[in-house]
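Support case: user asked for a sample of complex input and structure output to validate their parser. Sending the pair below.
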Amino acid sequence: MDIFLVTLLNGLVYGMLLFMLASGLTLIFSMMGVLNFAHASIYMLGAYFAFEISRYAGFWPALILAPILCGLIGAAIEVWGLRRVHHNGHIAELLFTFGLVFIIGRAVQMAWGMLPMPYRVPTGLDFPLFRIYGADFPAYRAFMLLISAGMLLSIWVLLKRTRIGLIIQAALTHPSMVSALGHNVPRVFTIVFAGGCLLAGLAGVIGGNYQTTEPGMADAMGPIVFVVVVFGGLGSLAGCFIASILMGLVSTFAVVIDASFMDLLRPIGLAFTRDDLLGEILTVPVARIGALVPYALMILMLLVRPRGLMGTRDT
Amino acid sequence: MIDGMTGAAALGAASARPRRGVIGAFWIGAVLVAVLLPWLFFDWSHGRHSGFVVSMLSQMGMMVIFALSYNMLMGQAGLLSLCHAAMFGFGGYCMIHFLSAAGDGSLPVPMEVLPLLAGLCGLGFAVVFGYMATRQRATAFAMITLGIGQLVTVAALMFHHFFGGESGVSSDRTNASSLFGISYAHGIAVYYLIVAWTVIATLAMFALTATPLGRMANACRDNHERVQFMGYDPRAVRFLQFALSGFFAGVAGGLYAVTYEIVTFDALAAPLSANALLMAYIGGTTVFAGPILGAVLITLLQSGVSLMSNSWLVYVGVLFIVMVTFAPGGLAGLILAHVPIRRAGRLGRLVVPYVRVGLPLLAMLAGFVGVVELASFMTIGEAQGKHLVLFGNTINASSVVPWLVSVVLLVAGGAWFWRAAKGFRATWDGITADLRDLT
């Protein structure tokens, strides 16, 4: 029970972090049809920017400035890059962001080196908030939850309750009609792309000191965010939210389960010890294959429901 | 220059095919070069081959198969796969186990045939995962293959019996017998095995493009709804194309295993999948031979530039982005854009404009390389204890002068290039307009 509660909370924190990244990706995708491969790279940039700013000005300015910087970079990518390749189709746009992954990844290594950065939790938040069953729950994780919940709320208000949100939603499904009504659709695209990158940057600021700020962090985060977006259904924010929380919980819980498939078979009288591939698959504890679970879940989902959990379209 | 060029490439795509004789000469020449090249670097005084050159050429051979098989998806079927290395690596792992089995006598198959078995393993793998991935197309397909690639990489680190975990699996290639009594102890023998298989695989893939399946794959790429209207099942076409490309990736992986005698999870991880994409796209996906150019160029960059520079990935990334933005036809597309001009005898008129564009381009490139290298030497190079050496002089990366020179070269060269490119574009458009009037 004690482990259960702590893991649940940790899973929530991780899930909300995933959602911050995945929501931007989903917004950009459903609006522009562009799968932004560089999204996790922007997340990494957010963490590095936050580290650099917090060295001079402290954590709180970094929390504001680093996401804005990432948003500006996103706007620049959209205006000077994606718009140019737009006429070559979605695959060209996707490939463009794919190339950015290499450049950003390497640029980060050139600017900050290969070693992890000492980007720490701010001292004001570096205390255990409460103890459950002998385990401390750091205040910083609660702060992360707070930030991501606030972001969730503000996205929702922005999209559902404001005029710009209305235009964004309309441009999502009927871009030519919105354009005919006199709205500047390319600028809406830029705003959405920059907004998505801003969210990724924010995730980087609060995720960089929760995990480690190092050049491999984009590659570690990227695939799992894509899994979340596919699992939740391309283009659905609600599905994306559910998938993020689920994936966060699943990957956190998988690490603490010490059972294997064999334990499922034992009650029905099947037990065997073999030293080959099948034996290994059956006896490996879930904790060791935990990293596999999200991908396996995604493939399962696609077999049962190809458009994902709450997706509205096939491609 | 650049937009005009891509426009011309798109316009002239149908009429730009060189004559049959030229194409035939290209293929024969390519095979001849592949066969003779190792002897150019033969060390006559010691009577042995240059190990570096032979291993680089071997790498090129398998990458040619790999990139061509990738283009069966990317160029011919319009499918952006991000797990192509999974088939390559799986073929490689199977090959290692075949070699071990050959060692204990349980698999009496000669070496020359073993890559075929590795290919069949790749095919089986592609059938299983292709069944899931090809349910979707376009962007969703790309994301599913990304997930599959990650799944396989993670699994390879977890299941030690087949994949050997972090350290991988290794075997001895001399275990296998040979049809022709050749001993595969030396790299050069393996190289010729690779050349033979590369020729076979290339011919087979080229033949496939002319089959009904190859044609339907093109049709699905261009308009999958219309294919459905005609009564075809685009999903079946995607599936078959995916499976067959998995076969050739498996062959390439098998040759990889024979060459290095060890396969680790690097052989199926994401960077290699990305490499397949880079090779095919930079070479040119619209032309069958494009990926060959890409494979040769990227392998050269990888083995050549990576010896000198830490940041070869930046160059490849920038090259890729420039290609995506300005030349979606890749190198092959750029070359083919010149075919109609050459045929009309106007190629001479491009020489002076090319020199005018080339000089500022070189200056800009030099400045860019300078900035990248200086920046990387301040952090990574310093940590590795390396020194930046140019023409025999050690350069202090944190002093002002080299930075200033590089930045000035980059900015001034860039501005000059911008102006020159406009002039070039005007010339190019003029020539293509003339050609259009002629026809």
